[in-house]
Amino acid sequence: MSVLIVSIISTAVLYAVSVLYAAIGEIFSQKAGVMNLGLEGIMLMGAVSGYLVAVHQKNLALALIVVILVGAALGLVFAFVTVTLQADQTVAGMAMLTFGTGLSGFIGNSVAGVNANLAFQSFEIPLLCKIPIIGPSLFDQNILVYAMYIIVPVSMIYIYKTRPGMILRALGENPATLDSAGYNVFALRYGYVIFGSAMTAVSGACVSLAYTNFWSDNMTSGKGWIAVALVVFASWNPVIAVFGALLFGAISVIGVDIQMVSSTLPSQFYSALPYVATIIALIFTTGNFRKKRSAAPAALCIPYDREER
Amino acid sequence: MKKKLLSIILAAALAVSCLAGCGNAANDSSKGSADNEKQTGGATAVSDLKIGEIESYVINDGGWCQATHTGLVNAMEECGIPEENLLTLENIAEDQASVQAAAEQLIDEGCDIIIGASTGYSGYLSDMAADYPDVTFAQWGTETDGLVAYELRSYEAMFVAGYVCELMSQDENTKLGFSASMDEFSVRTAINSYALGAKYANPKATVQVACADTWYDPDKETQCAKSLIDAGIKYMGMEATSPAVAQTCEANGAYCVGYHVDMSQYAPDAVLFSFTWNFAPIFKQIFEDKAAGGEMKSLYYEGGECAQLTEFSDLVPEDIQQKGNELKEKIASGEVQVYAGPLSDDKGNELVAEGQVMDDATILLQDFYVSNVDCAWSK
């Protein structure tokens, strides 16, 4: 039994991390007032660029750097369109989605069906991995998962306990005030959008270089959208996002397990479970339940224009 | 002004990159042959045939579309049809507008045969067939009005796969796994044939099924394989598109039979051998019949070398390899029938009586699981 529990938790953690990079990146971006709906496209670009480097250079560190750079470059384009040109963020996000999906398929053509045989391998952390159940499921993972253990608390502290975090929150609530106080709203938004996009690209690398190890068109199969949903689900809070991601991961893993052990329900029922969970969670996290602490940044999706102050 | 100019340039750049992306949609060849005079009923040279294929995805997807495309290319080579006589349309969605537009484009280019590589096309192509009597619409799947259907007896190879897996696992346990995509008739055929093969090796063998409930999702496929392995299963078959199952097996010390293409390169320590599609002999027959100008069969349903298994890897011991090969020969010669009676389903109903063999129509549209399949939702 404990083997099964370990297996469920460790798979759920692996799944959670592959969407969390994108979700936390998007939290930063949205806290700064820019909504990027093109996560799926950026993830695919991250996945394909990392895989291309893995195939041709056989170097994971280099692959990760390239992934981050590709994500940052796409973030720069997105920031230029939404912050400088003040384009509609929803439309620009859709453009990013189709652009990323198409371009990733195009440049990934040469490595579709090619095996890189190079992935982030899991390794045990001494001592910690000896803890029953938690040890083997949490501390026998790959480096991208361990990095997430640090990223979550750091981003929490950054957003809620530091001065730059306060500025970040103000950026999404009332950029005009920040501008009057002498901060460069445009530069800050550029920075957070680029950071968010780079994190999203790392999510893509989790898919092609850790969770599985191949490249195929559209291989993220909707993870970018789950990340977008997680941001709202988590009320823009990285720690809640962690629980949300784990919940999604666990539900989808358990579905297959129950299906096998004992049940007379059709398999489609289990495939629907994550969506049922989403609806239940949304009931509790939105609407009347959350009226008092509506977490959506007030200036989200509103391009900042100095002349309209 | 500056902003406007910039946005125009940006929009133009985006448009150009979009166009670049869809550049290879149709390998447009000799436009001059548009004056397509076809002799109805009369014979033409095979090498003059022009073939159009409609694919639901890209032709180098490492799976289904690639198999269809490779089959076409090989068959054309054997028939001496020049390469440029093949027109390929990729990424055609399974809706009426897309399918009809694609087919009309191919007919405009003078195609004599149109290959619909996805089951979802059959209804729309069937509607069009009446309007274009000179064009042959060949469609993957079961018999449909106005279409020439093609299918291959994949169950023969799956039977061998189950047999070999059971021989490999015999001394450990009698439970094999099967990582399935959808609960659908063609998938059920694969599961049942695999289970019957296992039973042929060991009457007590059972097969546990995990269903991803999607045609393509590496996450779900990984989870299915993982769940099977957690349940103590060491050998599994699959009907899944991505290499995720094979990689999960390799990471957890289990073994599997690859699917669609040779998957051994993705997981050399887990893939025993792979099930692959070989459409070339069927397409060759379709081309020849079309060129001869006579009546065409409504269903080309072939086995033998069509349902191909790749070479056994070194993971399979020599004596088991030999037994597997012997079984292949016995199936080819008709000595062993996969769906021979007595056969009952998992609820105990009789499917085939002793001494009889299941008919092709039932084999093609299986709505049952055989007795040794352990599939929770079926009970």
UniProtKB/TrEMBL annotation, chain A:
One of its GO terms (molecular function) is transmembrane transporter activity. The keyword Membrane applies. GO terms for cellular component: plasma membrane. It is found in: Cell membrane. The keyword Transmembrane applies. It is a multi-pass membrane protein. CDD domains: TM_PBP1_transp_TpRbsC_like. Keywords: Cell membrane, Membrane, Transmembrane, Transmembrane helix. InterPro entries: ABC_transp_permease. The chain crosses the membrane at residues 32-53, 60-85, 91-112, 143-160, 190-212, 224-256, 268-285. PANTHER family: ABC TRANSPORTER PERMEASE PROTEIN, SUGAR ABC TRANSPORTER INTEGRAL MEMBRANE PROTEIN-RELATED. This is ABC transporter permease.
UniProtKB/TrEMBL annotation, chain B:
The keyword Signal applies. The keyword Signal applies. PROSITE patterns: PROKAR_LIPOPROTEIN. GO terms for cellular component: plasma membrane. Keywords: Signal. It comes from the Bacteria. Residues 1-25 form the signal peptide. Residues 57-339 form the ABC transporter substrate-binding protein PnrA-like domain. PANTHER family: ABC TRANSPORTER SUBSTRATE-BINDING PROTEIN. This is BMP family ABC transporter substrate-binding protein. It comes from Candidatus Eubacterium avistercoris.
